[in-house]
């Protein structure tokens, strides 16, 4: 009976709608995947093949592009630096932003909204406009060409977006939970560490993921604030294959593919939490 | 359990940060102590001549040789900055913040030359007024001097004649390279009929390099040696823009030229698909290694001349100067000058030139028996045979105006702007 009813519902309009839906989805899938496939295939070509036949398959798959990427740009060391910078920045930024978001979203004080607006307005400032002041601060602190210099800068740059995301999430946590905690004797700090922070983990993960990926892909400040291989990150390694007039495109693409792997894994393992964090923050509790 | 984890995480982060920051400061302090204990002067040289740059191996060898000769006294440390645009951004930010590297490569365009103002850069005017200055080609020193100050030493120069693929010309039944633009467009028709692309062009990149050079050649041919003294709205530039527009229509260039970058424009020439292309001597190695057949068929020659205009125009420009941060320390200044003298020594410059194919503002002789690359020799002849040498568009305008050139060119190539509107868009940016 149920089967019959279900078959009756499959009208030509339904079939067309479903077909249209799948065509639409497949179109965007191809649009998204194709550049990635092109990138991966191109990373196995010679420069001559890349420049003269950009959409053909390589005659011989050039594994040595990957070997060259690792050897010439010393990607191993740069990879380690990127991991250190991205993890430390994510941790620092999440800690500071969650504290700020906690105070703003859970406490009542004068100019609260004004303070939030000032913090969030940082999102609107192009980072290139802050290059000179950041350089002065970092070199003044004696942190030029050090990993802490990059970690502090990235943490600061990402505070507006992190506060925005975490504040949105924390605002949805019922006040009653904190009130009960106060009755049980929780202090201000304990409310933050024992009640609000654990309940905000999806929001923290969302914010942390954004920060991690930003750090992983950032180039401008990495270039500005470092000068030696000891403190450089992966994105600078990618540029090692470009010179003033000549570019080794295929080795550069091989390096790009290598650098993409961690971000892809972050998305694969975190995408559910990222989406839940973003949507939870958007709904009032 | 969760509480403990969070507390441990916070404690670890704070401890890690304290250790890293203090550790780093201690390292800096220990570095700061070094000069007092030793006489060794270390000069940091952030440079673009690393990685894939054709000059990189010889530059590194010369730096090593300098360090070995001056062991215990001076040491130059190369800091690799292969990405040219990023290098310029970094330098601009550093200099704006008042922190100038010990040594660096300065691109002598209007934006970078504004660094001459103030006292952040070392002035070499006095040193170069002596015998050291005699190493340089005529006019190079005076060209780099502004208000009596010589704050960057002319070094690498670029010449960009036209690269002609004579195999394509033969296949199209054209006996020789075009001397006028009438001959040029006739040749384009025959080249298209033979199944090839007449010219390599590009509107992409930061400066639409190949097309910007075509425009500079045409403008030089119409306006002569002083063309860049004219206002950009002068009819000379509109006429030049119209010829450039014609190179983009009717299949005179590839479809991917709009938005294409140097890889696209160079790729068509390398593949033997396009007949005419413009680039400098640094591209010799790429053609020689990747497209030996095209290399054998390549003829370097002047661009065509506009009827009634100036014949024998060549585009040449100071490409990279050497510069240094000013210092009150006489010993450090001595070290900088010693290194600059070393890098501009004619025999050292000759080594770089012969190895990389680059051209320099420093004079050096080539003996008859010496093995000069065939195409490099043609480059030298093209320069020697020219009636006059003009700089290109990029050398005469600020970075944002140069970036606008490509944007405006794309509009014109797509038929969304006339030659007048193309020029007006650039003029608006200058204003």
Automatic annotation (TrEMBL), chain A:
The chain crosses the membrane at residues 21-41, 78-103, 115-135, 147-166, 195-214, 249-270. It comes from the Bacteria. It is found in: Cell membrane. One of its GO terms (biological process) is transmembrane transport. Keywords: Cell membrane, Membrane, Transmembrane, Transmembrane helix, Transport. It is a multi-pass membrane protein. InterPro entries: MetI-like, MetI-like_sf. CDD domains: TM_PBP2. This is Carbohydrate ABC transporter permease. It comes from Candidatus Thalassospirochaeta sargassi.
TrEMBL record, chain B:
It comes from the Bacteria. One of its GO terms (cellular component) is periplasmic space. It is found in: Periplasm. Belongs to the bacterial solute-binding protein 1 family. PANTHER family: ARABINOSE-BINDING PROTEIN-RELATED, DIACETYLCHITOBIOSE BINDING PROTEIN DASA. This is ABC transporter substrate-binding protein.
